[in-house]
Specification:
This protein is of the alpha+beta class. It has 2 helices and 4 strands. A 4-stranded antiparallel beta sheet has the order 1-2-3-4. β1 and β2 (80-88) form a beta hairpin. It is rod-shaped and about 105 Å long. The mean pLDDT is 84.
Length: 138
């Protein structure tokens, strides 16, 4: 009876190996979940930075930089490249009878960057008005 009790105490080698395999599989799943979460945080951070770059370029137009039709390019930091396009705004057919003392421009800023070898981009647009100087100084 004491021999059978000694055989039943502790774990067998197979039970220990199965437990290690279950532990290994569980840890690999947890590491994948955490690495996916970290990747999502990095992607969200890149998009937030790209939005800041685009908003700053939109804010410059008409204030620090003149509203001139055309394109301009630049870089922000090491990863972000932006392209700003200014076009004349075409009014709707119904609005052609309106004569307002403003010129409208459509401003588009496109920001591009790479993330883990993949190209990413985002675009912001705005409609900018510029007062037309009145003739005769009035």
């Amino acid at each position: 009876m004491s021999a059978s009790r000694a055989a039943q105490q502790g774990f067998t080698l197979i039970e220990v190996l199965v437990a290690f395999m279950i532990l290994t599989l569980s840890l690999s799943v947890l590491f994948r979940i955490f690495s996916g979460g970290l990747n999502n945080v990095a992607v969200a951070g890149n998009y937030a930075q790209a939005v800041l770059v685009a908003e700053s370029q939109l804010a410059l137009v008409g204030h620090d930089e003149p509203l001139l039709v055309g394109q301009s390019y630049g870089e922000a930091g090491e990863r972000f490249r932006w392209r700003r396009t200014i076009e004349n705004y075409v009014q709707w057919d119904d609005d052609t009878g309106l004569t307002l003392p403003v010129s409208d421009y459509h401003v588009t800023v496109e920001v591009r960057w790479t993330h883990y070898g993949g190209n990413q981009q985002m675009t912001l647009n705005k409609l900018q008005e510029q007062k037309i100087p009145c003739e005769g100084g009035a």
